[in-house]
Amino acid sequence: MALVGTGSEGARGSGGRGVTALLAPGVVAIEAPPRTRRRPPKPPRPPRRVPRAPKVPAPMSRERAAARMVMALVAVVLLGMVVYLAGYSRLAHVIAQDQLNQELRAELEAGTLPVSEGTFDDVLLLDGAPVAQLRIPQIGVDETVVEGTTSGDLAAGPGHRRDTVLPGQAGASVIMGRAAAFGGPFGRLQELQLGETFTVVTGQGEQLFAVIGVRYAGDPAPAPITAGMSRLILETARGPAFLPTGVVRVDAELASAVQPPGARATTHAALPAAAMELAGDSSHLWALVFALQALVLVELGAMWTYRRIGARQAWIVFVPLALLTVLVAADQTVRLLPNLL
Predict the structure, then answer these.
(1) Where residue 236 sits, what CATH number does that domain have?
(2) Distance of alpha carbon 184 from alpha carbon 93, whole angstroms
(3) What pLDDT is recorded for position 184?
(4) Are 209 and 197 a contacting pair, CB within 8 Å?
């Protein structure tokens, strides 16, 4: 379309941009916009590498699928055990100590804290029952001592060996504690120095002990105690954390009045192997088997739910069940490890 107006301009020559129409005098034509030439599209570049055909995995045999599931279960249990030892065990120890301390105080106030291997009603003490309060401020120990020294007993706190008298009574008493796991209450035991004192509260009152030496494997034992003397031996693992290489013992003599010994039904010969130093407890192996079976059922149920119902439902239902079964399996696996770990 051209705009028409008055003016004295003539028609533009052919040297101008675009194309100019020849019109009558006094009529001006507007140039048409220049035409742009479109470049032809560039051909696509060939790929640098020739694409490979996707590999289709061969179907697994039943034996291979079963082996894969077993390896996955072992990996899950081992990972759960590491998390259990490094994190959850400390929390479990704090909770157990709080409950044991309350029970110990209640029995002290009532005057029913046992002074022998039996209860106030002459019933044999159960493993894990509180029997004393051990306080060693030099190394930050304020722990309730339980009866029994198996791996499960020492998860709650230091344990008193059943075949020995209670601390402060005439004779030798042995208390074991963990060095790293479950709070590691005896982790600094070897820092005790000759002559340092600490206390143990039992049903017979507060007993004061003085350190007479720290010994390792191969070191000579102190002189045997005589009649009317009382000695306490504290034991824990020696070596890097979670990698015990031996046992460290702290010997202490009673510096207060000696108390009469209580009756002991368990002898050293009758003491189970799981109650000795650096021993594991396999008496609850059946619980580990059931926990692994439950973990297999949870995995199968999660796979079926994921395929038939949906991923969201599978996560909501089976993640808590899987965490619970892994926790139980890890707890039973830890019982197989050395009790002083």
Answers:
(1) 2.40.260.10
(2) 9
(3) 94
(4) yes
Is residue 89 within 8 Å of residue 335, measured between CB atoms? Answer: no
Q: Which residues pair with 173 in a beta bridge?
A: 232
**Locate tokens 């009574």: which residue?**
169
In a domain, 300, yes or no: no
Determine, yes or no, domain membership for 295.
Answer: no
Confidence (pTM): 0.78
Phi and psi for 169 in degrees, rounded to 5? Answer: -85, 160
Got the DSSP string for 128-193? T-EEEEEEEGGGTEEEEEEE--STTGGGTS-EE-TTSPPTTBSEEEEEE--SSSTT-TTTTGGG--
Per residue in 133-153, pLDDT tens?
A: 999 999 999 999 999 999 999
Percentage of the chain surpassing pLDDT 70? 87
Which residues fall within 8 angstroms of residue 52, CB to CB, at 6 or more apart?
A: none
SS3 at position 207 = strand
Tell me the per-residue pLDDT of 116-139, one tens digit each, with 9 for 90 and over: 999 888 899 999 999 999 999 999
Q: Where in 151-303 does DSSP place strands (E)?
A: 159-160, 171-176, 197-202, 205-215, 230-238, 246-254
Dist CA 341 CA 332 (whole Å) = 15
Q: How many domains does the chain have?
A: 1
Please calculate the CA angle 131-165-265 and round it to the nearest 5 degrees. Answer: 90
Strands 171-176 and 159-160: antiparallel
Rounded-to-integer distance, Cα 169 and Cα 261, Å: 5
pLDDT digits (tens, 9 = 90+) for 8-56: 444 444 444 444 445 556 655 566 666 666 777 777 776 677 667 777 7
Domain, as residue range, for 192 = 76-275
